[in-house]
Amino acid sequence: MDFKLKIWRQDNPQSKGKMVDYEVKKISPDTSFLEMLDQLNETLILRGENPISFDYDCREGICGQCCLFINGRAHGPIEHTSTCQLHMRSFREGETIYVEPFRAGPFPIKKDLKIDRQALDKIIASGGYISVNTGQAPEANQTLIDSDTVEQAFDAASCIGCGACVASCKNGSAALFTAAKISHLFQLPQGKIEHKKRIKNMVETMDQLGFGACSNTGACEVECPQGISISHIALMNREFWK
Amino acid sequence: MYYTTDTATTPNAKIPEGDLKDKWSNFKDKTRLISPNNRHQYKILVVGTGLSGASAAASLAELGYNVSTFCFQDSPRRAHSVAAQGGVNAMKNYKNDGDSVYRMFYDTLKGGDFRAREANVYRLAECSSHLIDQAVAQGVPFAREYSGYLANRSFGGVQVSRTFYARGQTGQQLLLGAYQAMMRQVHLGRIKSFTRHEMLDLVTENGVAKGIIVRNMDTGEISRHAAHAVVLATGGFGKIYYLSTLAMGCNGSAIWRAHKKGAWTSCPSWTQIHPTCLPQAGNYQSKLTLMSESLRNDGRIWVPQTKNENRKAIEIPEEDRDYYLERKYPSYGNLAPRDIASRAAKERIDAGHGVGPLKNAVYLDFKDAIATQGKDIISKKYGNLFNMYEKITGINAYQQPMMISPAAHFSMGGLWVDYELSTNIPGLYAIGEANFSDHGANRLGANSLLQACIDGYYVLPQTLPQYLAQQGKATPPESSSEAFMKAENQVRSQLEELSGINGSKTVDHFHRELGKILYDKCGLSRSAKGLTEAIESIRVLRKSFLQDLKIPQVLQGINEELEKAGRVADYLEIGELMCIDALSREESCGAHFREEHQTPDGEAKRNDSDFSYISCWKKNADTPVLIKEPLQFEFTKPTERSYK
Hints:
The complex is a heterodimer.
Chain A: E1 3-9, E2 18-24, H1 33-46, E3 68-70, E4 73-74, E5 96-101, E6 109-111, E7 114-115, H2 118-125, H3 147-157, H4 164-168, H5 175-187, H6 195-208, H7 219-223, H8 231-241
Parallel strand pairs in A: 1-5
Antiparallel strand pairs in A: 1-2, 3-4, 3-5, 6-7
Helix pairs in contact in A: 2-6, 3-5, 5-6, 5-8
Chain B: E1 4-5, H1 23-30, E2 43-47, H2 51-63, E3 66-70, E4 88-89, H3 101-111, H4 118-138, E5 163-164, H5 170-187, E6 191-194, E7 197-205, E8 208-216, E9 222-226, E10 229-232, H6 253-260, E11 265-266, E12 271-277, E13 300-304, E14 321-322, H7 324-328, H8 338-353, E15 362-365, H9 367-373, H10 375-393, E16 402-411, E17 414-416, E18 428-430, E19 435-436, H11 448-470, H12 482-500, H13 507-521, H14 528-548, H15 560-584, H16 608-611, E20 613-618, E21 625-630
Parallel strand pairs in B: 1-21, 2-3, 2-10, 3-6, 10-18, 17-19
Antiparallel strand pairs in B: 4-5, 7-8, 8-9, 11-17, 11-20, 12-16, 13-14, 13-15, 15-16, 20-21
């Protein structure tokens, strides 16, 4: 398959970026989107040009490192899929594809398509845990948790921290990311003791870092690779105001 | 001769006295401690923030030590432990199915083909139960029965159900638990986390580890970090095969650079080739995605009876199918251990029974499981794996069998460590997949998450303080010495050298070539002839790499090709040592299968009288030196490893 690409190029955080045109030819439909970029990069390197910087690591949809905004959508056209799990068979022959970084105030661009998401780590550091030291834990089966509750907590815990929710939100809100961690820990009995303090600290940190407010458009839920529901945001808001 | 042997040196594994079940307690009873008031004076560097690194960093910081962590990812949460799917083993005997610490110890020792230390393996089984308690307390959402009790499933190589799991995302959930514990300590100011920093050298003074040199991958800045102890938790190097189940950034550089500073490398050729991965489909593929071993609980593996079969899988009737694992290993069947399942697949594929467009795969079929248990149950157990399979291949595995193939997965080998997880360099520790310790010549499924956690949460925080206590009063670590300056200069000149070659081939080109050599000659099957050819080919390739590499000539700012070039330069050296290690071991054991040493029915033939040792490779100016740590079996008797 042949494609025309328009890719965001930016030398460093300070410089002004722009869209640059590229073409790739004879790409197998079973090639992943990132492997297509790999091939383009090999061509650029051999031509003596600078390859395109983009984030990736596990390439199996779980590390959350890849983060491309493709044709105006976080992680591209397929729902609930991270960029690395996207294949060229999902595009039309000859299609022009726009590739940009995830954009949000708290996610400064480092170079080309690579962004800085340390803000998400800061939200977790402010309270996204149960404060148990190694060695303190009681026998695991002492606390029984019904399987439906665990499954619901898991739905929230499955977040891969990619930031697609932030990039998809017109307000640049990290509400889904933050709510997912709050909800995961709140639903489990062992997470309830610190709940009040956790929610206050995490929401305040989220605000201080410059993430926008949630206005319930639901855009985040549509693009989340793990399909995490905005009902967790409702839970966060309800619990925050309690 | 590709190596020399040093028979004068015998490594001291520092195994505590006493009966097998008392050894760990005996160690803990006698170890020297540091008073809580003084702990903050000791600085510890932890390189790598996967399960072992994050859990060690969190646990040491909780104790009060002054910790800095380093990872190449943009967040500690992205380390490749995140990708482990199926589960973590632990001895709880919740199933009342005959499990015990001894049985878990024996399964693991036998699974590794009696090529690990009894005391280490016993400790792994002994501590496993606490890990489940700790993870549950952190909020890890392990699967539960309807009654609210924790659920279990089975993994390969055992006849009990001792695997705890969190859907197909057990590694992710355990890692998030460790990451959150670590971030809590970051918030409390007890850990300083350096993300996007890659360790490029170990600094030693008078043979003692004193710190590291790192490169900031965003700015290109090189900096020195001095400490009282250095912990390498940098994972495995299976990515050396280029196509593997590992993340793209996984590498062997930290342990290799420590090796070049004197740390011994043990059994580097023992690589686990995982039987259930997606097959290679094209030349530009960048990885082979793992499909969890848990699928073998219900999936049946088969190939067509006839060679070069052209019918579709669903059109092939039962009598024309060969369920070769069930045929060859009736008592373990589809749950035969990984080395055996992979070798059996390769044997069938090589014999012309492979399936798929490149005839390089076997079928993993859920037809019978769906018929007996229903689609809903199968979907509840493996839904996310079936979805992942469909996303990548476009094939619905509820309707037709998956196609799977063996791929490089886990490094049993790594830096040599003693019982205390210390390398032979005082002050340098190696934990998790980065070391060679518990898995012997083959790791059992769901034991890697376990080992990473046990090393990080329970072993290192007990053993490292003893080393610090021996130092006496802590003096602030200094990074201005000549050793630091020399190491930093070396790092700078290597980067300049690589970027200055300006040849005509990309880093990936060389990496792919190296991968091909290793898969062919030092993969599932090895021979003296093949290994010798591989060593020669790798030498030629390394020469070509140093003359013909082309990367952007930028040392400042982000330059991924420069990062990759450094790693591939190391891989080209590690690859040679892997082949030498495989050549020196003239027996078959676990994942190491030497064609010259097999039983009449094609199984691995061990040679305990000559090869019951751990190889410890020491760097030397010209040829590597082999030191042997003999394995002593005081409490078990190594037997022929049979799963028939």
